[in-house]
């Protein structure tokens, strides 16, 4: 069974692959490569990172309220709650780094086409 904390990372990477393929096609279209706005990749990366931070804080707040209501809680239950929160943060950072790499490749390709 698949761990659900990895699902946002997979969805984010698939969306970025679709966006980057679309932008690569536009960049390699010799007629309009100067009009392609590649900043969209970074914007989606930042949005993914911010949403992952928001979901991590919401998850942490829910965990803390459950601990406050439950009283004495073992450390294993607390650590399992933190694992989900860290999963959100790792997936957000991964999506942002992936978007930076795609943006860098697109910018390099666009500059090389502009020089020729």
3D architecture notes:
The chain has 116 residues and is mainly α. The chain has 3 helices and no strands. 82% of the residues lie in helices and 0% in strands. The chain has one domain (4-115).
Quick overview of this protein structure:
The protein is mainly α. It is 82% helix and 0% strand.
Structural class by sheet pairing and helices: mainly alpha
Helix content: over 70%
Quote the distance from N terminus to C terminus.
Answer: 50 Å
Question: How many extended strands?
Answer: 0
- Report the biggest beta sheet as strand number plus sense, adding barrel if it closes: none
Identify low-pLDDT runs. none
What Rg, in angstroms, do the CA atoms define? 19 Å
Shape: rod-shaped
Number of helices: 3
Query: Could you tell me the strand content as a percent range?
Result: under 5%
How many structural domains does the protein architecture include?
1
What is the overall pLDDT average? 76
Q: What letter string, H or E per element, gives the SSE order? A: HHH
Search tags:
116 residues, 3 helices, rod-shaped
Reconstruct the topology from this structure.
Elements: H1 7-28, H2 39-70, H3 75-115
């Amino acid at each position: 069974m698949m761990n659900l904390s990895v699902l946002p990372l997979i969805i984010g990477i698939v969306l970025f692959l679709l966006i980057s393929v679309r932008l690569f096609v536009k960049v390699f279209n010799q007629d309009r490569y100067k009009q392609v706005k590649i900043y969209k990749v970074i914007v989606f990366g930042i949005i993914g990172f911010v949403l992952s931070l928001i979901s991590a804080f919401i998850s942490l707040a829910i965990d803390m309220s459950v601990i406050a209501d439950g009283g004495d809680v073992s450390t294993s239950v607390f650590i399992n709650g933190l694992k989900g929160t860290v999963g959100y943060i790792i997936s957000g950072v991964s999506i942002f780094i992936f978007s930076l790499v795609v943006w860098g490749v697109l910018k390099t390709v666009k500059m090389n086409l502009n020089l020729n």
